[in-house]
Amino acid sequence: MFLIELLNLVSEGIWRAWRAIFHHRLSKKELEILNSYFPYYSQLRPIHQKEFRGRLEFLLTEKKFIARGNLRDVSPEMSVLIGATMVQVTFGLPDVQLSHFKKILVYSDTYFSNISKAYHRGEVNPRLGIIVLSWSCFARGLADYEDGVNLGIHEVAHALKLENQIRYNGESDFFHPVIWEEYQELAQQEKEFIKSRTDDFFRERGGEDSHEFFAVVLENFFERPELFRERKPELYRALVRLLRQDPITLKSA
Ligand SMILES: [Zn+2]
């Protein structure tokens, strides 16, 4: 018994030491990138910015960013802004770090998938635990932060929904079951509107299935929350409760 406790203490000590040595600390350059190019972060109150930086450092410690295709290296701009998008989407869910997805593969531009035999901008593979992104498409989505189209948010939203299914087998833990059900009912209705072209607030892609709808809806939730709340107040409220954050009130200005 004593031996087991001793071993536990030793392994915990090694883990802590490892984390202390290799824990990512944001450099001055990385902070500048975050402040200059990530509106969600720069609009937060200082207290939330501190929390955001802590979560980003944790994420950059845990995830492996890998350059693919003709991209030679994943630059600090890439890892910081992609990591920041993952923090943004999960910011209201403190225990969710998308731990199922350990690797982020980055291509410089759209890439050819041998499986689908088509060019892709990004995808999420739950079997391999990877998120794949085209940097040029990611950067374009972030540069226009008000049009409701954002590849990074889109793919991270896919990962979040899949992680919820994988970890909890649909019996949601980080999504409250009652609110999830409420969201699903509203989502069903909206998908019908998209298909019948009764309403064009959400782009057509959202009408494909429940995964695409969730991804498209989150792009709008973060990029144009005021308009979203005005046009779809019930769905907006359901998302605020589901993700436990409100992009409108999080802004300091
Ligand atoms: Zn998608």
Describe this structure in words.
It is a single chain. This protein is of the alpha/beta class and 253 residues long. It has a single domain, classed as Collagenase (Catalytic Domain) (3-Layer(aba) Sandwich), CATH 3.40.390.10. The chain has twelve helices and six strands. It has helices at residues 2-22, 28-37, 39-42, 46-62, 76-89, 135-143, 151-168, 177-195, 210-223, 225-231, 233-243, 247-250, and strands at 64-67, 103-107, 111-113, 118-120, 122-125, 130-134. The strands form two sheets. Strands 1-2-6-5 form a four-stranded mixed β-sheet. Strand 1 (64-67), helix 5 and strand 2 form a beta-alpha-beta unit. The longest helix has 21 residues, at 2-22. The site of zinc ion (ZN) has 4 residues, from helix 7 and helix 9. The site of zinc ion has 4 residues, from helix 7 and helix 9.
